[in-house]
Amino acid sequence: MKDKLLSQIQGLRTHALIFDQADEVIGVLTEFARGRNIASATFSAIGGFRDVALGWFDWQTKDYKRIELNEQVEVLSLLGDISLDAGRPKVHAHVVVGASDGIAHGGHLLEGHVRPTLELFLRETDETLRRAYDPLSKIPLIALG
Questions:
Q1: How far is CA 5 from CA 121, 125, 141, in A?
Q2: pLDDT band at 10; cut points 50, 70, 90
Q3: How far, in Å, CA of 36 to CA of 23, rounded?
């Protein structure tokens, strides 16, 4: 992955991240956030995946149903945030991808390998967001309190 700092205004940074072929997005983005001490940010991206694993949260089991697409897809929209979970940056992303037949698939991005590229723009926020365990959903959610 290549990155460039596009702007820094009053300490808030905006980055362009251009992923390389075969990069696994969640892992690479998490390492980028850790390396740059990013505690809170939002991002959006477009591009393509050679394969992707989506997640659909099943409220009954409190776990993600894994949906795998082992084919080339267009990343139509990838949106997400970075917040702190137990003091470490955590990436939370949702994605909509388009298959060759024009059918769209979407969900929580569990894993995706880039092909040919992914263009992501990340904007840091000035307030640190932290996650806390939610007993109802049994997952860490952003806590504003």
A1: 10, 15, 29
A2: confident
A3: 18
